[in-house]
Amino acid sequence: VDARLPRRFGGAEGEAVYIDSEGSFSPERCLTMAEALVKHVRSSAERRQKAARSAGKSAPPVPDWFDPENILDGIHVYRVHDEAAQTAAIHSLPAFLKEREANGMPVRVVVIDSIAFHYRCAAAHYDFKSRTRQLASVAAYLSDLSANFDLAVVAVNQMTTKIGAGVGSSSGGGGPESDTYGDSRLVPALGESWAHSTTTRLLLTMDGGFQAVAMGLGGIEGGEGGATRRCRLVKSPHKPAGVAAFQVLEQGIRDAPPQPPSSMAMQRKRPRQL
């Protein structure tokens, strides 16, 4: 949705491609977020114009084309049902991107949700060495695509549970990109070969982990008391590691409310050992 934001308001003013391998794309959710974005931009533009008039200046208005329907028109969805269709859709992108550039509406972001789904659903006799080679080839292809067309490629991985004795001990064997629960830990599904093929890696978690999912806190929260999620920067060529808190609300992704000092102090307090 944000890819459609006009340049005069800090956006890319382009289009988006969404390759949906799981059937989880929701046009209704996109429409809700688009309506919230348009409302926010129009409100911001009105404040800017009011401040500019009081200073004897002028501020740019919101473009006429910027409305929820036009935002959705700029989101192109590919529904892929197997690994072959997913690979074909990825390799068909250059021709489509050139066509959109020729029409004056370049694509600025390609989202693959998820890159792992069809590889994980492969038959039991599937050659995993061949899978590793295919993933490396896809990663290199997407990297070239990003560089040649000046766009961002977001490939969503999945998490899987790795079970092992002693993993959940106080020694912290889960590593910087896993969540540890007892004798099991969550790790990226496609393994280290895919991890090394990517340029930037983000790990998304939710406060409460398995317990929050079991209690049904993984959905959309419309109020201030929604579940807090964490975005952890695991790998980046030019940014230091860090964590940011956010919430998924009806309007989209928003900052998480600040924690009270008492809650932060409890998180910093180490448990006593008896």
Q: SSE layout and pairings?
A:
Elements: E1 15-20, H1 27-54, H2 68-73, E2 75-79, H3 83-91, H4 93-102, E3 107-113, H5 117-120, H6 128-149, E4 152-156, E5 159-163, E6 179-181, E7 184-188, H7 191-197, E8 201-206, H8 209-214, E9 229-235, E10 242-249, E11 252-255, H9 261-268
Parallel strand pairs: 1-2, 1-3, 3-4
Antiparallel strand pairs: 5-7, 6-7, 8-9, 9-10, 10-11
Note down, in words, how this protein is organized.
By secondary structure, the chain is an alpha/beta fold. It has 9 helices and 11 strands. It has helices at residues 27-54, 68-73, 83-91, 93-102, 117-120, 128-149, 191-197, 209-214, 261-268, and strands at residues 15-20, 75-79, 107-113, 152-156, 159-163, 179-181, 184-188, 201-206, 229-235, 242-249, 252-255. The strands form 3 sheets. A 4-stranded parallel sheet has the order 2-1-3-4. Strands 8-9-10-11 form a 4-stranded antiparallel sheet. The longest helix has 28 residues, at 27-54. The radius of gyration is 22 Å and the shape is globular. Residues 167-174, 210-225 and 269-274 have low confidence and may be disordered.
SSE sequence, one letter per element? EHHEHHEHHEEEEHEHEEEH
How far apart are the first and last residues' alpha carbons, in Å? 52 Å
Structural class: alpha/beta
Helical percentage: 25-40%
Strand tally, please? 11
Radius of gyration: 22 Å
Biggest sheet character: 4 strands, parallel
Strand order of the largest sheet: 2-1-3-4
The percentage of residues in β strands lies in 15-25%
Mean pLDDT: 82
Keywords:
about 270 residues, alpha/beta, four-stranded parallel beta sheet, globular, disordered C terminus
